[in-house]
Amino acid sequence: MTLKNSSEEKTIGVVGLGSFGTAIARMLAEKNPVVAYARRAELVDEINQNHSIDGQPVSKNIIATQDPEMLCKSCEILFFMVPSSAFQEVVRAFSPYLYPYHIIIHGTKGLCLNLPNGKSLSDMKVISRENILTMSEVILKETVVVRVGCLAGPNLAKELSKGQPAATVVASKYNEVIHQGQNLLRSDKFQVYGNSDIIGVELSGVLKNIIAIASGALAGLGLGENAKGLLISRGMVELIYLGNALGGSLKSFVGLAGIGDLVTTCNSTLSRNYTVGYRLAQGESLETIQNTMSEVAEGINTVRLMKTFVEGTGMRAPITENLYKVLFEDLLIEDALQYLMKYPFSVDVDFL
Q1: What are phi and psi of 126, to 5 degrees?
Q2: pLDDT confidence of residue 121
Q3: Catalytic residue at 208?
Q4: Is 326 annotated in some ligand binding site?
Q5: In the prediction, which pLDDT does 342 show?
Q6: What is the per-residue pLDDT across 151-169, written as a single tens digit (0 to 9) for each?
Q7: Where, residue-wise, is CATH 1.10.1040.10 in the chain?
Q8: Any binding-site annotation on 31?
Q9: Record's Pfam families (predicted)?
Q10: Beta partners for residue 168, in sequence order
């Protein structure tokens, strides 16, 4: 793809250079200059001096900084690609330099807690929707930015980095945000769809990680495609129930960001969440797995958070509840599977 004329170029900011952030920075740099924020000084030097990220070549269109103010002054459109565990902290660091004219699109498939000062999830017996923030809600809460969007879909970073065909969804209440995301990212090998239900699209990306962990566990046990088909279909029902309770729309859950991402992550060894489940079934402890993974598997925290939410609503989410017991209460995966096989689902598709 050829670069635009300099008169048409706009500098785009990317905050966070994990595998997905790096893939998005590469794609953005095909059309426009990119300023990327990284915490590690050695990574900033590597990008600016060697035009590489962890030894892998990147476009000379990408420069790096550790200065949030410089990035915000240089860019009106920012892509936040930060793990959910650090998302609020990073947004707060950028907040003094953000203005209403900025547009932020995030690519984080996690949730943040909104609890009274000094409280943690372990202090709460139950939580409600008001205690849960999607990443767009974090941005709206912590900054004066109004035009916010999210990026979600079956977007395995390694495949994107290789230029393999894929698609994503840019979701926002503002058509301008959707159009900007499409214009910046769309190419011959990357399709970008729009969706106005930002909460539903965010929740699709978040909740499918629960089912991906369970799918990896089935693979780790050596079970076949029938079992996986059962899990994915029942997992889709559970995703929709939980997503509706959190304010999402059915249309988003059955679209690319929902079922599309679910099918991908439940079948790919490139998925961090799938890998967690697989390694658990192979006998590794959760602590060992987390300590040896280079990036965060968002589904682990999502399981913990959604289990507490479900208990406060009176809903049942059998896959989430049993996966919680596997992750945090030493329930054997085989016992969890036996429970789910006996669970009295009343009808096949009971969310319509």
Answers
A1: -140, 155
A2: 87
A3: yes
A4: no
A5: 83
A6: 999 999 999 999 999 999 9
A7: 201-342
A8: no
A9: NAD_Gly3P_dh_C (PF07479), NAD_Gly3P_dh_N (PF01210)
A10: 192
Query: Are 73 and 47 within 8 A, CB to CB?
Result: no
User: Binding residue per annotation — 40?
Assistant: yes
Every domain of the chain with CATH number 3.40.50.720 lies at: 12-196
DSSP letter for each residue of 152-174: ESS--HHHHHTT--EEEEEEES-
Q: Give residue-wise pLDDT tens across range 248-301.
A: 999 999 999 999 999 999 999 999 999 999 999 999 999 999 999 999 999 999
Alpha carbons 182 and 191: distance in angstroms, whole number: 8
Is the per-residue pLDDT at 210 higher than 50? yes
> Which tokens sit at 239?
């995703």
- The bridge status of strand 190-195 relative to strand 166-172 is parallel
Residue 304 assigned to a binding site: no
Stretch (H or E) spanning 57:
strand 56-57
pLDDT confidence band for 346 (50 / 70 / 90):
low
The CATH superfamily assigned to 201-342 is N-(1-d-carboxylethyl)-l-norvaline Dehydrogenase; domain 2 (1.10.1040.10)
Q: What is the CATH number of domain 12-196?
A: 3.40.50.720
- Read off the pLDDT band of 44 (50, 70, 90): very high
Give residue 83's identity as a one-letter amino acid code.
Answer: P
pTM score, two decimals? 0.93
Please pick, among 10, 158, 208, 307, the residue that the annotation labels catalytic.
Answer: 208
d(CA 29, CA 22): 10
